[in-house]
TrEMBL record:
Residues annotated as domain Phosphoacetylglucosamine mutase AMG1: 179-284, 298-437
Source taxon at top rank: Eukaryota
Binding-site residues for substrate, renumbered to this chain: E371, A372, N373, R499, P500, S501, G502, T503, R508
Pathway: Nucleotide-sugar biosynthesis; UDP-N-acetyl-alpha-D-glucosamine biosynthesis; N-acetyl-alpha-D-glucosamine 1-phosphate from alpha-D-glucosamine 6-phosphate (route I): step 2/2
Protein name from the UniProt record: Phosphoacetylglucosamine mutase
Cofactor note: Binds 1 Mg(2+) ion per subunit.
Active site per the UniProt annotation: S65 (phosphoserine intermediate)
Alpha-D-phosphohexomutase alpha/beta/alpha domain span: 52-100, 112-167
Residue ranges constituting the Alpha-D-phosphohexomutase C-terminal domain according to the UniProt record: 456-517
Keywords: Acetylation, Carbohydrate metabolism, Isomerase, Magnesium, Metal-binding, Phosphoprotein
Species annotation: Oreochromis niloticus
Top-rank EC class of the record's enzyme: isomerase
Catalytic reaction list: N-acetyl-alpha-D-glucosamine 1-phosphate = N-acetyl-D-glucosamine 6-phosphate
Amino acid sequence: MAQFQEVLKQSALHPKPAGLVLQYGTSGFRTNAKQLDHIMFRMGLLATLRSKKTKATIGVMVTASHNPEEDNGVKLIDPMGEMVTQDWEEHATQLANADQEDLLTALKNIIEKEAINMSQEANVFVGKDTRSSSASLSQAVLDGVSALGGHSKDYGLVTTPQLHYMVCCQNTQGKYGEATVEGYYTKFCQAFIQLTKNTSNRTDDQKHLCLDGANGIGALKVREMESHLKKELQISLNNDGSKGRLNHQCGADYVKVQQKPPTGIKINPGERCCSFDGDADRIVYYYTDSEGTFHLLDGDKMATLISTFLKELLTQAGLDLKIAVVQTAYANGSSTHYLENTMKVLVRCTKTGVKHLHHVAQEFDVGVYFEANGHGTVLFSKAAEEKIQQLAEDTNVNDKRKKAALLLRNTINVINQTVGDAISDMLLIEAILAIKGMTIQQWDTIYTDLPNRQLKVKVADRRVIDTTDAERRAVTPAGLQEAIDNLVKKYRQARSFVRPSGTEDVVRVYAEADTQVRNLFSKLSLLLILMAVLLRLKNIWKGIVL
Ligand SMILES: CC(=O)N[C@H]1[C@@H](OP(=O)(O)O)O[C@H](CO)[C@@H](O)[C@@H]1O
Ligand SMILES: [Mg+2]
């Protein structure tokens, strides 16, 4: 077939370095940008096949999110703006790792396995972040699409969630919004303005937000969006990319993991601040108090604020809809306890990775999901949206119910339901704080985090660790879980687990414990040190050697 001849010809321009093997990780391929040209070309091919198979537009985003500037990566986006399904992740890995001379065979295997009609039209949307490598890598994606005869639309510089939004808009014939960046700003900013318009007496302080853009795409896009906010939210933008390096000592991941403010930003005591990550699909909030102590409000705090707000509105509206919060093992134990016992909200725990949280959240009328690191959103079932819409239009309901229904309707419109979105989450949180007349300090005191630490340990082969119970318990290697249990039971409210990372070649170690008495803190550190030592012990388990 002529198409395959073209693939062969084009692929020679995007050759695979011999011996290189890469896995489709937690959210796509991610490594040093120099190793990715062939991967991008092949993901262009795969997205074209996926589009033919689903008869819908597919998205390909070139980004390595919070990772350093010299890395890059690629994320595939399915028709409704969701992450690509797991069986296609396997196709992606196979196609990515096929030797140059086996590429056509690998391609044909997928076509056969998925019974793809090659005469079906294909459409692929492509976007990229601000990394210097992104321009040529996104061109490689476009080359892959055209080699298989697909049509592509290059959105250029966009945030990851913006591209998810575009794909969803396109495949729902505009019902979700208009598939342009302008359409994105209009939809979300209008909803924000509607939500906040009746909040009386918002002071200038309440309208002001200090933002760390991680020197990335989020900063550019916030600047573009600003005029749509009509001064209802005044953002002072730091780390906008004009000086500093992408994600270098700044951004949501740095702030969350280091538990300190980013560099490149001057924070006044009590000022409300937030940080985006490098592709603007994560956000965390924080402030420093008058004594200079840093306070982090992470994904768990956001999930709590949002689910409390929604639960109150559903009650006021008299709507009997099932709401749940979906977390991972990294959620602070205090947040889970508060949600279950004080808020009486159903909490579910899943494996790390947004795709897992997203799917569980879809099981409920209203599913709020957040990773502790600040990636999350809210999903409303179709039935829930219809009930809210009906109530908002009903002329026979009392004022209280009507008001709640209208707020719920605007809340739905301010949320990007396709994926966690730093811009949309920011607008949602800002609106909730405005409506509740709440300061960041008041939000912070809803519950107190258990002190916690996260470490990474490099081992020879992280795959020897296998986990169960949403990654909270290790099944292999033998003896590991027992050792953890023995350590943990010595401390109050202590919890710890180890799991292999899906994005880096490391094992992650997490621990938290009740350290209300100051000197117990040293015991928590001790617990962590012991665990790290445990992992470092050479030859204790076959396969783990430092
Ligand atoms: C503890 C942690 O923050 N893990 C992150 C990280 O996954 P790992 O599988 O832990 O490497 O990257 C994922 C993709 O960005 C993100 O979804 C996840 O939350
Ligand atoms: Mg990201």
